[in-house]
Amino acid sequence: MNSNVLVDTHAHLDLLYHPMEEAIRARENGVKYIVGVSMGIASANRIQELTFRLPDLILPAVGLHPWNIAQEDPEDCLRFVQDSLDHAVALGEVGLDYRIKTPKSLQKEVLMRQLMMAAARDLPVLLHCRFSHARVLEMAREAGIRRAIFHWYSGPADVLMNIIQEGYFISATPAVKYSTKHRDAVSLTPLTNLVLETDCPVEYSGVESRPADVVEVCQEVALLKAVSFGEAAATTTENALKIFGGRLII
Question: Is residue 118 within 8 Å of 63, Cβ to Cβ?
Fold first, then answer.
């Protein structure tokens, strides 16, 4: 495997002003694939459009994000997810967020229904778990999910150990350069359970991220793990291959 090939496993391409240009710039910087995550129907349709235009670079994930439950009709969205998953590489971004006002009971119902859809297709899941790390892990296990990425994990160490024991993964974001909790999580996680992402266009230190920034994430992971950039790149890309399967060809 080319040790300089990278995968951005979590990018909100639909929120970028110039997604095509940014995706191509990332490819020029060594990014082989970008997983475009969705938050609802509109974003999923936009990701599908981008995938159609750059099918060898952008891979679509589909899901109803907890932030969007209150903004869209959950039943319409769940039907859309059900109908769209056969053409996606993953379910995502989905999960729980216990900092928002949407009732926890509704969030859990929506998440479990989506997890069961993914389990029925043996699809990986991209999980949002803000202030809900243990519960999201419990639900993923209950649903029988075999492959999961706990996106931007910054939670408790004991839950992290259980995530690793389950064979799941966490993703390192650009916040690994300065966030103590995120750095601690990445430091504790074996390289064999790590993938890279940007979550673009999220701002880090006041600067909007882009898919090409996954290069800097890999550099920081290499420093934390005391390995070469090439080893960090090769291992995290191999992990992405294990997660997303046959759609990724390196």
Answer: no
Amino acid at 64: L
Quickly count: other Cβ atoms within 10 Å of residue 108's Cβ. 16
Q: Where are the domains of the chain?
A: 6-247
Distance CA 63, CA 85 (A): 8
Q: What is the DSSP track for 12-47?
A: -GGGSSSHHHHHHHHHHTTEEEEEE--SSHHHHHHH
Buried-exposed string 69-81: b where 16+ CB fall within 10 A, e elsewhere: beebebeebbebb
CB 160 within 8 A of CB 185: yes
Cα–chain-centroid distance for residue 166?
17
Closest CA to 32 of 242, 207, 243, 233: 233
Residue numbers of the chain with a pLDDT score lower than 70: 1-3, 246-250
pLDDT tens for residues 188-197? 999 999 999 9
Q: How would DSSP label each residue in 89-148?
A: SEEEEEEEETTSSS-HHHHHHHHHHHHHHHHHHT--EEEEEET-HHHHHHHHHHHT-S-E
Q: What is the CATH number of domain 6-247?
A: 3.20.20.140
